[in-house]
Amino acid sequence: MSKKHKSISRAILKKDEALPNFRPPKTLGYGNTNVYDSNEKMLMDNGIYSTLDAGLYDRFPTFLGYMALAELSQDGVMRAGIDLRADEMTRRWIDITYAGEGGGDDIIATIEDSLKRLRVDKVFREASMMCGLYGGCLVYIDIGDISDEELLLPLGEDNTTFSIGSIRGLKIIEPFYIAPADYQAYNPIDKDYFVPQAWLINGRKIHASRFLYFAENQLPTLLKPAYNFFGLPLAQTCLEPVLAFEESSKASARMLTKYACTVFATDMNEVLSGGSDNNIRNRVQYFAQNRDNDGVMCIDKEAESIEMPSHTLSGCTDIVRQQMEIVSAHFGEPAVKLWGISPNGFNATGDADMRSHYDHINAVQERIFREPLQYLMNLIQLNALGEVDENVEFSFIPLSDEDEKLQADTQMVKVQSMCALFDRGIISGEEARHVLATDEESGYDDIDETKEIVPPDMGEEPMEVGEEVEIP
Hints:
The protein has helices at residues 3-12, 15-18, 45-59, 66-72, 76-89, 105-117, 120-134, 148-151, 234-237, 239-257, 269-272, 278-289, 316-331, 335-338, 351-385, 401-423, 429-438, and strands spanning 94-98, 136-142, 169-173, 178-182, 198-201, 204-207, 211-215, 263-265, 305-307, 392-396. A 3-stranded antiparallel sheet has the order 3-2-7. The protein has a 3-stranded antiparallel sheet with strand order 4-5-6, with no helix packed on it. It has 17 helices and 10 strands. The protein is mainly alpha-helical. It has 3 domains: 3-240 and 363-381, no CATH class; 260-307; 400-447. The radius of gyration is 34 Å and the shape is flat. Strand 5 and strand 6 form a beta hairpin. Mean pLDDT is 76; it is low at 1-12 and 30-59.
């Protein structure tokens, strides 16, 4: 960094001037509440100044702001990438299983009915969109009309504070209506350290347990207030490559309009000396009207000449395509999925890209959906059954059909191995059943091991050769 830049940085990043950049952004929910009272202690006040004074502030942007992010939601490329990820994250949704005895079919059916009634997959898809566009959001758990005093109380995961049949629905709360209310930024060993215990929704204070919390790309503690205690929006991380792609595609389009340029050399003395240009305009117009493959242009042999230089377009396609691939990489999506273009080079088929895509989607599901979905599943059990059964589990269904086929092939190999061991008398039928019952991936983990094994009916004993048969 030059001396000039250093002096500017020190002038800008004084403590009193730098601190506002790391306060929660102004939102519709901020109200008149001053969460930065002068009597309250802040985290590493001097540390923020020293970190920024190192010169990082000039290199990395701060939060773009909800207005700018809302405008980015209208960009076609940005919207396509965020929409695609949200669709993929909820396309096959979840598989609910029961790890306890008895199978739990009735419990699973009840939970699935509740998930369908509350349209949980649609709500989570919208939450994924909010994460991509704004960095996160809250989903309010509607349990009916309650007073402002009750909204300040926690929504406990027990039947004393949560009655059966109380959940009416789920409501997405966009982040520009939200501001943090209660959190402490002094003691890092506390569980509520930089974790809001309540939120202001348009100035109305509500306990955090009454919301499902979604956040994209969690940030370091120093930056959490600047991003309203949510995460780094996918739209902000992908902004630079999207703008570069759009600029390169526009530049390539402009190249087409300048691909060929006709240079008409003629006497310009009259025009350049301030005279009328009517004669020149008529001359050029005459040429333009007859300019085609069947037209003939006559020019003065001594005073006029025509040249038609052209520019090469080679390389434009490669540049634009490279920018498209960079955009795909930032969105974490393969080019064939985001753009519909086939991969090039190395005899590529796209299979590896799709497997990487499915792994990426599963990782994002676990990172963003796992915790709020587990909390919601517990509340749904309280709402429908009156208690939480710890044996109820869920997993995200793999997006790839190949994963299911590979799993089926693996189980077939296991079964064939057990059959071979059984035929040779190495293991008994009971032992084989035990292996199937204890293997969660076998598809037979719910069978009853205590049930008596009945051998299949093989019919009558085969007749001996030469045995006489009595015909009635």
